[in-house]
Design the sequence.
């Protein structure tokens, strides 16, 4: 799985995309997000997960919050995405089909955040 920040180049930018993954990697990512939703794991430093390759130094930290903050930029290529437990549970549900081999893409976070988070099997949207 690759993690990359695209500042521009498409109308959807800026965006952070997680892409180029196998079903097993998507399943591991679902487990990480589900752990965040349940409170058993926090934070999830996506860029440090053993199956994630950061492109260009992109860092994405997922955190549980009492409110839905979406994505905030914390450094040049560093971002934090914070949601409530219920929203993280919904996000896990959005990713789950990819763990069964689904193709395509899914937006995981958007407005009013500072970047969109895209989960895409091929990298396209």
Sequence:
């Amino acid at each position: 799985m690759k993690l990359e920040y695209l500042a521009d180049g498409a109308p959807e930018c800026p965006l952070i995309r997680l892409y180029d993954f196998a079903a097993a990697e998507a399943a591991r990512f679902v487990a990480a997000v589900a752990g965040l939703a349940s409170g058993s794991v926090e934070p999830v430093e996506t860029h440090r997960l053993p199956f994630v390759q950061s492109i260009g130094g992109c860092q994405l930290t997922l955190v549980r919050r009492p409110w839905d903050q979406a994505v905030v930029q914390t450094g040049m290529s560093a971002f934090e995405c914070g949601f409530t437990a219920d929203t993280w549970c919904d996000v896990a549900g959005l990713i789950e089909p990819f763990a069964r081999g689904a193709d395509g893409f899914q937006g995981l976070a958007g407005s009013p955040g500072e970047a969109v988070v895209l989960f895409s099997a091929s990298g396209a949207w």
User: Anything to note?
Assistant: The CA atoms of residues 5 and 16 lie 4 Å apart. The chain has one domain: 2-120. Residues 2-120 form a domain with the Gyrase A; domain 2 fold (CATH 3.30.1360).
